[in-house]
Amino acid sequence: MTTDWNKVIKIMRSNSADDFIRNVTYQRIVKRINYPTEVDLSGAAIGILRLQDTYEMNTKDIADGKILNSKMRTVALTAEDCFEIGRVAYSEHDYYHAILWMQEARERIQKETKPTANLESILDHLAFSLYKQGNLKRALLLTDELYRMNPDHPRAKGNVRWYEDLLEDEGIRRADMRRKVPPMNNPRDKSNLKDTYEALCRQEVPINTKAQSRLYCYYKMDRPYLRLAPFKVEIVHQNPLVVLFRDIVSDEEMRIIEMLAVPKLARATVHNVVTGNIETAFYRTSQSSWLGSTEHEVVKRINKRLDLATNLETETAEELQVQNYGIGGHYEPHYDCSRRENVFEKTKNGNRIATILIYMTEPEIGGGTVFIDLKTSVSCTKNAALFWYNLMRSGAVDMRSYHAACPVLTGTKWTANKWFHESGQEWRRPCGLNQLDQERYVGDLGAPEPKRHLNIRSEKARK
């Protein structure tokens, strides 16, 4: 926490630890190591709130270090930690979470022999949050308590009068303002999109059994090279097609890719459709770097393999993007392609026609890929690659490709993805006779469907 770091700085300065300070300064300047800032604190707190909502975690359990069904246990949070999380929510006008965490901070400070937080600040923030969520009587009672603790508090006396006036405006007599307190009201902002996204991340959306019965696995052998070494393909969704290539890369290849990517990792960015600028965003929290074919033989080999797997030209595709998602890392629902009509005016290679996403690791909990409109969830499977088309064969945006990366709860998620562009695909994925024509399988040019196999499991699953 940034508050702890500020204490460390004070201690260092008070002890006049000149050599230590010089060393820290050297590390910061030469090795570009930055100290934690308020931005880091805010990002970490918002990440905790995101995980809490997505995986429906209890505030007390999180504060106690209990992470759902995970074997991992973390250090319990102090009252100060809970207050800081609540304060970040409060500053974002997120009074739903502010109440949850301020209440937890209040309970914890009462059990601490040496208080780590300021009870007056907790009550002050909690009272106003309760008021904003429609708990006027509760806000008044807490402010009464605050005023009794400190009659000189800069806001307590004025807020007592203010809450009393508001209750009087509601027709409540002064004698009843502190009696018959109704149950707590703390609703969370509702959003059908967010509810669907979070339910998919928890894998709670019912599966359509009829649609699932039509899914199958097959060996992809439609290229001469693949006769000897076919790809194992699992169809995850039909209409539109989403498939999973099993065991498409090896552990050693992914180790090398990670080794190449780490020195170049930087905060992932997004394209602002309003300003046209490339910028960081709260809805995408990960680190990424880009690897070209000339950087290592393994990158070149993987690009060739992705060509064989997808039947799409890689010469006009983007470089391999490697991404690392830490705890809370996510990417909210989005499209990979541009929805503008003048894409070729912006880039000579046109729009992103398809995406292939390689799962380099498997987080213990979370991190899956979900398709909102398709009501489909795909868990991270190490060394597998998820593939889908962003555009119809006509070139129109397939609005059903709306997808998201679920937040990582425990473990670390590494991925490598490649975006294929329209240019160069004229013979590989030509337009159909009908505007709505789409693939039944990868590389579908009208031939019969591949021979079905009951199940194609990963090498790991067979052992």
UniProtKB/TrEMBL annotation:
Recorded GO MF terms: iron ion binding; L-ascorbic acid binding; procollagen-proline 4-dioxygenase activity
Main location: endoplasmic reticulum
Keywords on record: Dioxygenase, Endoplasmic reticulum, Glycoprotein, Iron, Metal-binding, Oxidoreductase, Vitamin C
GO cellular component, one term: endoplasmic reticulum lumen
Biased composition (Basic and acidic residues): 449-463
Known cofactor(s): L-ascorbate
Superkingdom of the source species: Eukaryota
Domain Fe2OG dioxygenase residue range list: 316-422
This protein's name: procollagen-proline 4-dioxygenase
Pfam families to which the protein is assigned, alphabetical: 2OG-FeII_Oxy_3, P4Ha_N, TPR_P4H
Keyword Cytoplasm belongs to the record: no
Gene3D superfamilies recorded: q2cbj1_9rhob like domain, Tetratricopeptide repeat domain
Function: Catalyzes the post-translational formation of 4-hydroxyproline in -Xaa-Pro-Gly- sequences in collagens and other proteins.
InterPro entries in the cross-refs: Oxoglu/Fe-dep_dioxygenase_dom, P4H_N, P4HA-like, Pro_4_hyd_alph, Pro_4_hyd_alph_FE2OG_OXY, TPR-like_helical_dom_sf, TPR_P4H
E.C. number(s) listed in UniProt: 1.14.11.2
Organism: Brugia malayi (Filarial nematode worm)
Subcellular compartments: Endoplasmic reticulum lumen
Enzyme class label: oxidoreductase
Family: Belongs to the P4HA family.
Ranges where the record places region Disordered: 444-463
